[in-house]
Amino acid sequence: MRAPHPRIVLGLHRSRHQRRQLTNALDLGITAIDTAFSYRGFTSHTTLADVGRGLLNRFTISTKVGFFPEPGGAEHSLDPASLQGALERTSQTLGRAPDLVFLHNPERTLREKAAPDALAQACAVLENARDTGLCGSWGVSTWDPSPLLDAIDPDIPKPAVLMVRCGLLVGVQTLRAAESLAHQWSDHNTQVWGMSPFSGNTHDPIWSKFDARVFLRDHPSHLTQVQAAFRTAYHLPKVSAVAVGTDDPVHLRELVDALNFEVDEQTILRYRGLLTDQAAAGHS
């Protein structure tokens, strides 16, 4: 078995939640799981506690709160009482306090309602959850960080981790917003994690239309486009870990192996320059 690898987090979004997925991850040295209160139709925690019986104590677990079941689907809310209830049910269902709880896509509520204090109140709930033992630490997971930039102020509690989209398909505006948000929390040593490095689909034709290996320095000819894209995702924006989900043990091993290669920082800078030029041309 490999030594624990801190740079990959096994994401359970769209996962079948099978025990072999957990054992495969452990065999590859992956000892972190990321899920959410709302995943798998609000049954992820229950299923994980069942299939992971006897294994979960070998993982650090991060989860998310912010979506709640409603007739016909899910509704987003930053209501403090709803968040508190979800935090309590999470610990009860998992049989342990999660190591990290993210506020799940807070921009959904911030974008739809004029609620200047909503983010501050939600962060205060998570800060209290950490202090009272309902979680080890807390963070913010955001698909679109732009609305958060106008909602944070120095008095809002600071997260331990910020999770944002990463990879070659992330637009320059999202990259800039994520980096600006991380910078504003940098004095708190907030870690930055990435998610959705392939925008949810490794079979998208885009991955065969260009050679992602140009972003790496020295690499063998057998390195795949998906491996190269995954390794590059750690630099767009710069993140210390990436949550990625797969039920395929071969694919997961390929992603672990991709971390052995170095990214060419100058090529990343040139690529970002192209993104900036393209965005400027689109607004001219």
Question: What features would you describe in this structure?
Answer:
- It is a single chain.
- The chain has helices spanning 19-27, 39-42, 44-51, 80-94, 107-112, 118-131, 146-149, 172-184, 225-233, 249-258, 265-282, and strands at 8-11, 32-34, 60-65, 67-70, 73-76, 100-104, 137-142, 161-165, 191-195, 241-244.
- It is of the alpha/beta class.
- The strands form two sheets. It has an eight-stranded parallel beta barrel with strand order 1-2-3-6-7-8-9-10.
- Strand 9 (191-195), helix 9 (225-233) and strand 10 form a beta-alpha-beta unit.
- The longest helix is centred in the last third of the chain and has 18 residues, at 265-282.
Characterize the overall form. globular
CATH topology: TIM Barrel
**Biggest beta-sheet profile:** 8 strands, parallel, barrel
Distance between the termini: 54 Å
Order of helices and strands: EHEHHEEEHEHHEHEHEHEHH
Low-confidence stretches: none
**Helix-strand category:** alpha/beta
Helix content: 25-40%
The order of strands across the largest sheet is 1-2-3-6-7-8-9-10
Instruction: Give average pLDDT, whole number.
Output: 91
Record field, number of beta strands: 10
Please work out how many helical segments DSSP would assign: 11
